[in-house]
Design goal:
four-stranded antiparallel β-sheet; four-stranded mixed β-sheet; alpha+beta
Length: about 180
């Protein structure tokens, strides 16, 4: 059995990593309204002119940081972009990226959707009612229990295969 270790989230997840996308560039945009609650897949995106917002690439996880979107489960795994493409979306996304040699992209997504992680984010929210946002500093300092990178990969692949089967079953049901 693999021994799990305790790490600070900021040492395991690269939060809001820097990416270059020049203002005025036409790029793939994912609006908050495009995410389905508690669904890994991004069902649709659009091409739009970048004038600001969160930037991300394939392998990143995007999670709502504003109420009620976070409580409603708006978190997704980015896999809809072309190779090397930088996409963008709402300023109300927290972008999470795996740290090379430390964490696995799929495992990061499943960590972000874990009720323990989500509840810490939700309880950290501050601001006026209806416009509350996650305190990034609270997420940074969150203690996570994580396995080795190899075990993260195995867990990520296993859970991703279950998600793919669920998606396929939903498509079959929709056709019936």
């Amino acid at each position: 059995m693999t021994r799990w270790m305790s790490v600070r989230a900021v040492d395991f997840i690269d939060f809001n990593p820097h990416l270059n996308l020049k203002k005025g560039t036409v790029a793939t945009k994912v609006g908050m309204d495009k995410l389905n609650p508690f669904s890994k897949k991004i069902p649709e995106a659009e091409k739009a002119v970048f004038n600001g917002g969160s930037k991300f690439c394939n392998g990143d996880t995007i999670m709502a940081r504003i109420t009620p979107c976070l409580e409603n489960g708006k978190t997704a795994f980015v896999d809809i972009l072309d190779d090397g493409e930088v996409g963008f979306g709402s300023t109300e996304f927290i972008v999470m990226r795996a740290k090379p040699g430390i964490s696995d992209p799929q495992f990061i997504y499943y960590t972000a959707t874990n009720p323990t992680f989500r509840n810490v984010a939700i309880k950290s929210m501050v601001g006026s009612s209806g416009r509350q946002r996650v305190q990034q500093s609270v997420l940074d300092e969150l203690e996570l229990q994580v396995p080795t990178l190899d075990e993260q990969r195995r867990i990520g692949v296993f859970l991703a295969s279950l998600d793919e089967k669920i998606t396929l079953n939903n498509k079959i049901n929709d056709n019936l």
